[in-house]
Amino acid sequence: ETIDGEEKSDSNPGLFWRTVGPDSVQANVMAAAIVNALTTPQATLAIIYQNSVYGAGFKEIVYEGIREISMDMTLSLHKFERANSAERQLAWEAVAGLDPDGILYLSSDIQDITSFISFLDEQTAPSSAPIFLADGAADEDLFQVNVNEQMLGRIIGTKPALNASSIFTAFETQLQQKGYDARANPYTAYTYDATWMAALGFAWAHFN
Questions:
Q1: Angle, CA of 169, 110 and 164, to the nearest 5°
Q2: What is the pTM of this model?
Q3: What value, to the nearest 5°, has the Cα angle with vertex 195 and ends 191 and 200?
């Protein structure tokens, strides 16, 4: 059951509409990237994830995606609550102690992500393990973090591709002219979708 009824159809769409891209496509691409990058026999991957719709949901799909490709990889899960900085710190320290072959970090908060990168950079034991980040890290703040270049070189990221249509390009150009860095911001695509949804909602209300 949804917020405004059980069944939805084109003729009865309900009153609660939202637009968001599915995590399944990106998560499966991430799973393949991890398996391709961690080629050592019985490789280990630590998954640190924010216990939120974004973090927990993405984690489930990546976990299943990796298992479909490889049963040999050892996966460890490290959860933290969004507002619990102490629990987050414990997850970081646990993973640092494991010294895994790779780390997947899932959070919708860019400050979480940059703080984790700084934490790894401060560790005394050198590591070259790749750090996998999803679109929650697609923010220019990631490149402002004060760490050495070797640390940034360990990062492997995924994010949904931008729409390549001429209509989207015109939309993006208009945003750029208004002083909004549309190309760098991961929410540009969501803004585009939401604009179309608002127009569709207006038309549906007008004719119904």
A1: 15
A2: 0.80
A3: 145
DSSP state letters, 96-110: HHH--SEEEEE-S-H
CA distance 141 to 109: 11
Token reading at 169: 């390009």
How many other β-carbons are positioned within 10 Å of the β-carbon of residue 31?
A: 23
Low pLDDT (below 70) residues in the chain: 1-8, 10, 13, 15-21, 186
Q: What gap in Å lies between CA 81 and CA 106, rounded to an integer?
A: 12
Residue 70 corresponds to which amino acid?
Answer: S
pLDDT in tens, 113-162: 999 999 999 998 778 999 999 988 988 889 889 998 889 999 999 987 77
* Long-range residue pairs from 6-10, CB within 8 A, at least 24 positions apart, any chain: none
Q: How far is CA 149 from CA 54, 101, 117, 123, 154, in A?
A: 29, 19, 12, 15, 9
Compute the radius of gyration of the chain from its Cα atoms: 20
Please, is 128 exposed, middle or buried when counting C-beta atoms within 10 Å of its C-beta (0-12, 13-18, 19+)? exposed
Amino acid in the structure at residue 163:
N
